[in-house]
Amino acid sequence: MFEQRKNKPNVLVIGYGWGSSAFVQGLDTNKYNVKVISTRPQRLNQPRMINDLAPSYSPPPYRIPIIQDECLALEDTKNQVVCKTQSHTYDYLVIATGSEVNDFGIPGIKENCLMLKTEEDLEKLNSALKTPKPITIAGAGPTGLELAFRLNSPTQPVTVLEASPTILPGFSPEMQSAITNLLEKKQIKVLLNQKIVGIDQTCWKTATGPIPINGPAIWTCGIRPTQFTRQLNLQPDSKLQVRPNVYALGDCIRGHGPPTAQNAKQQGQYLATLFNKDFKYDDYKFVEKGRVIDVTDRLIVDINGRITEFPGILRALFYKFIE
């Protein structure tokens, strides 16, 4: 349990995800007081959520003061964060509010698509899946493809739409090829070069023409920082500092590695070390441990273009290592 003392600097952490939990766990509480503001008391584990189609949480490994609230504004001249219920002061602030679904302003996305970002999204998805129907998924990134492998069946065929000319943009050609072969083997249809410009209850509207909708339509095409962090325009330096005594990590920033749990965790561990060493430490550098696509019965792993497979039963052990 963390003991709050008046003679220690107060560290306020906003958000409780992969990055902030790693930061709090690594922070020397003999040197700092720490408290966390989060809209939820536990960390939602999205990779497991996709595999199980059920909410999966990772509770903190020890008692930590989590204040359930929503942050609205930062008053950095006062070292203060304004939340819905009250304001909180700090000596050091770590912003780790994660991300939300990005619809890119495309008409009809919010009204006609299912998402997979929160437990509320998952409830809506499970309700839509009660009666087997053809599924269309927009986005051939990791989330879209893992969901396609999870949901595809003879009575519930899945079609994936992707705006790019390849699946898994940003992944190695070897990984793209390996996953393409598995998609073909499992008869999951993928339509490339399909830029979506709108959607209604009957069809996806793409730049090349309409694509009919006969069942659930799922949107996995992108993320963006939350409203709180978008208004701050966070631009971290090489030590993840965005303003005097203010740091940021995870999906709410860009330019310091991919938007993955692996990177967020490394950033959290780095910041903890930076704080513990009195801010005298090397610049942050992301170390790629491998990229993973969970295809339900196995894990396909890409380590610098070398593709390896692991049985699905080793999922929990493998993720513990790579994250």
Automatic annotation (TrEMBL):
Pfam families tied to this protein: Pyr_redox_2 (PF07992)
Residue ranges of every copy of the FAD/NAD(P)-binding domain listed in the record: 10-268
Keyword Transmembrane: no
GO molecular function: NADH dehydrogenase (quinone) (non-electrogenic) activity
Enzyme class, broadest EC rank: oxidoreductase
UniProt keyword annotations, A-Z: FAD, Flavoprotein, NAD, Oxidoreductase
A cellular-component GO term for this protein: mitochondrion
Catalytic activity: a quinone + NADH + H(+) = a quinol + NAD(+)
Enzyme Commission number: 1.6.5.9
The keyword Flavoprotein is assigned to this record: yes
InterPro entries attached to this UniProt entry: FAD/NAD-bd_sf, FAD/NAD-binding_dom, NDH-2
Family: Belongs to the NADH dehydrogenase family.
Protein name: NADH:ubiquinone reductase (non-electrogenic)
